[in-house]
């Protein structure tokens, strides 16, 4: 009976754990965990949950989008300048964002792997003593 309960709970939780998200970094420093629905010429449409309405954000307010697969798309533009410090700072922030995204996806893979292992172990019959 306990095995069936554990299997049921894991089967219910596994899709929740596998819902991967994109991360939207706004120019004001805000991070939004979401799913990018579409990218239009001036805006980006996002969804922050399955039952949540679609939101539209202007591209001019977005610094970077880090997609669930680790791909990074930059939207903010740097004003043309001869100062390389601004370019180096943006490259540094972009590299940090990529590292954070890869770290988050690795954690998710470990969690899903552990859940799968628990599910397998729950299905193995325990001999009676």
Report on this structure.
The protein has 129 residues and is of the alpha+beta class. It has one domain (2-123): SH3 type barrels, CATH 2.30.30. It has helices at 2-18, 84-123; strands spanning 22-26, 31-39, 43-47, 55-58, 62-66, 72-74. A hairpin with a 4-residue loop joins strand 1 and strand 2 (31-39). Helix 1 runs antiparallel to helix 2. The longest helix is centred in the C-terminal third of the chain and has 40 residues, at 84-123. The chain is elongated, with a radius of gyration of 20 Å. The mean pLDDT is 75.
Mean pLDDT over the residues: 75
Number of strands: 6
CATH structural fold name: SH3 type barrels
Spans where pLDDT lies below 50 across 5 or more residues: none
* Helix/sheet category: alpha+beta
Largest sheet: 6 strands, antiparallel
**Strand coverage percent:** 15-25%
> Based on CA inertia axes, which overall geometry fits?
elongated
What is the end-to-end distance? Answer: 17 Å
DSSP helix fraction: 40-55%
Give a short overview.
The protein is an alpha+beta fold and 129 residues long. It has helices at residues 2-18, 84-123, and strands spanning 22-26, 31-39, 43-47, 55-58, 62-66, 72-74.
List keywords for this structure.
129 residues; SH3 type barrels; six-stranded antiparallel sheet; 6 strands
């Amino acid at each position: 009976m306990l095995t069936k309960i554990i299997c049921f709970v894991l089967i219910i939780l596994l899709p929740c754990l596998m819902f991967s998200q994109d991360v939207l970094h706004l120019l004001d420093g805000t991070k939004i965990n979401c799913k990018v629905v579409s990218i239009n010429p001036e805006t980006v449409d996002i969804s922050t949950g399955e039952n949540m309405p679609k939101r539209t954000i202007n591209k001019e307010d977005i610094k970077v989008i880090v997609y669930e697969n680790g791909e990074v798309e930059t939207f903010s533009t740097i004003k043309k300048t001869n100062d390389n410090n601004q370019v180096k700072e943006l490259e540094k922030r972009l590299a940090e964002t990529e590292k954070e995204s890869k770290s988050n996806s690795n954690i998710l893979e470990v969690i899903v792997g552990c859940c799968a292992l628990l599910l397998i172990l729950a299905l193995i019959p325990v001999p009676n003593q």
